[in-house]
Amino acid sequence: MRQISILLWIALSLAGARLGWVFLVRHDARLRMAGTSQARRERTYQVPRDDSHGGVGITQFYARSGEMTAGDPNLICYGVRNARSVRIEPPVESLTPAMNRCFFVEPNQDTTYTLVAEGTDGSQASESFRVRVKPAPPAILMFTTSERQIPKGEAVTLCYGVAHAGTVRMEPDGWQLPPLAKNCVRFYPKATATFTLIASGDGGTDRKAFSVTVR
After folding, report:
1. Which of 14, 34, 65, 105 is the most buried (most CB within 10 A)?
2. Which of 208, 84, 215 shows the shortest CA–CA distance to 145?
């Protein structure tokens, strides 16, 4: 009878231990599952970082031509991202942030253009390029006379106009004339001659001629 009681106590102890072990295992599993679910919830509701745009930037800035003639128009284009303001130096146009915009400039000398874009956080981005400007070649806009044939001793009126010229002279006598867009002079040719108007400047030389017959 005593042995049966001991065996029964051992069996009950083992059963209790087994039940306790099962409880601990299941409790641990529930804790692991709860921790995993919490981790999943934290990842699901985490605020993502938006790195798709980045900071302020200049996407394009260029001129249609890097070399031009003074007085001719040149096209400048630019594009910016994430900018609250944009400006160009030297200031030639009032600019606003845009992905693609172009405008005309007419520099008379070599010029370095700098585009500066400012972001909402105060950061800046800038790009520069240089445009080389060649002097405009002189041009004779007109050169004419009131008469192509005159009696000897009579006067003739000659009219001319030039652009981009520093000096103007007329051959064969070498008369120095003012470089104006419109001017007329009166003179008395002594004999039949071919008169040549020569306009000169930094960009070169232009010339035109006509003949006056003296009878």
Report:
1. 105
2. 208
Closest by CA position to 65, among listed 101, 104, 7: 104
Determine how β-strand 183-187 pairs with β-strand 111-119. Answer: unpaired
Are the beta carbons of 88 and 114 closer than 8 angstroms? yes
pLDDT in tens, 164-202: 999 999 998 889 999 999 999 998 888 898 999 999 999
Q: Where does residue 69 rank: exposed (0-12), middle (13-18), buried (19+ CB within 10 A)?
A: middle
Measure the CA–CA gap between 129 and 192, rounded to whole angstroms: 56
Q: Give whole-number Cα distances, 84 to 93, 125, 145, 161, in Å.
A: 17, 12, 61, 49
CA angle (129, 135, 136) in 5-degree steps = 115
Q: Give the chain's length.
A: 215
**Looking at the predicted structure, is the pLDDT value of residue 26 above 60?**
no
Quote the CA–CA distance of 209 and 43 in Å, as a whole number.
88
Edge-to-edge strands of the sheet including 156-163? 139-145, 156-163, 183-187
Torsion angle (degrees, nearest 10) of CA 120, 124, 130, 135: 50
Alpha-carbon gap, residue 154 to 108, rounded angstroms: 44
Q: Radius of gyration (Cα) for the chain, nearest Å?
A: 46
- First vs last C-alpha separation in the chain: 169
Are residues 101 and 80 in contact, defined by beta-carbon separation less than 8 angstroms? Answer: no
Q: Which amino acid is at 181?
A: A
**Could you tell me whether strands 193-201 and 57-63 are parallel, antiparallel, or unpaired per DSSP bridges?**
unpaired
